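Practice problem: predict the structure.
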Amino acid sequence: MNPVAELFQIEHPIVQGGMVWCSGWKLASAVSNAGALGLLGSGSMNPQLLEEHIIKCKNATSKPFGVNIPLLYPHAKDHIETCIRNGIKIVFTSAGNPDTYTALLKSHGIIVVHVIANSKFAIKAQNAGVDAIVAEGFEAGGHNGREETSTFCLIPQIKKIASVPLIAAGGIYDGKSWLAAQILGADAVQLGSRFAACEESSAHTNYKDTVRQATEGSTQLTLKKLTPVRMLKNAFYQQIANAENSGSSAETLKEILGKGRSKKGILEGDLEEGEMEIGQVSALIEKPETASQIIQDLLQTYQKAKENLYV
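Answer:
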C-alpha cells in the first residue's frame, strides 16, 4: 500500500492544501468523501471558528481529515489545543519551527506533517519527529520559500535525506504532474490552487473567476523582505512591486500590506485592493469543478499517463 495512504488511512495519496479563506469544512469534507485527505485551513480562523468547522466536518464525513496550522499565526497554540480537545488525528504544521509542537501533538496520538521548502528544514522536521514531510516548490501559491527552488528540483533533493513519507506540493495540477512527482521520489501529492477555485471552496466567486482567467505569468512571488508570497498581479500587487522596486524598507512594506489583505481578496472578492494568493498552476484552471471531479480527473489522468509512458 502507498505509505501516505496507509499513514492517513485514505484511499488515494492525494492531499488538499489547507488554504486560508478557502479550506473550510465544505471543501475538506468533500475531498475526504472522495477518498483523498481534506484539510481545514486554520490560518484564517479563530479558535471558536475552527472548532465549529471541525464539528461540521465530522458531521459531513466519516473519513479521515486533518487541520493545517501555520505556526507563526497568532492563534497557533490555541489551535493546537483545539485539535487535541476535539480528537483530531492529523495535523499539518507550516510557517514555523516544527520543534515547537510536534512532540506535544504526537503525545496525543496525532499524526504530524510539516511543510518545508528546503533541505535544512526537512532535516529539522525529521529531527522533531514528524511522520511525513510536504516539500513545497516555489510554484505554489501563498506563502513560499525564499530560495525559489522549483518543485521538480526540490523533490529529488529532499528524497535523498527523507526517512519519512514525502508529499510533493507546488505546481501539481493533474495525474501527469502527480506521476512526474512520483517518479522523482514523492509518495503523494498536495494540491492547493485547483481546490481553491473549486465549488466547495469558501473563496469569493470574484476570486474564483479571476483565478480561472489567469494565464502564464499572471502570478508573482513577492514580499521577500517580509514573508515571500505568490499572488495574482492586480492593483495591490502593483503597489507592492513599485515599493519594492524603489527600495522600500520592510517597515514600509508592512504599512502597505496592513491587515486583512488576503481576507479582502480571497474571501471578500476585492479584485483591486485584496491579496489574491494562488499558484502558477492557475494558468491551467479554466472551468468550475467540484472537489470530487478534481479527484476523479487526477485518478483518470494518472492512469492514462502511466499507460502512455515510454519504457
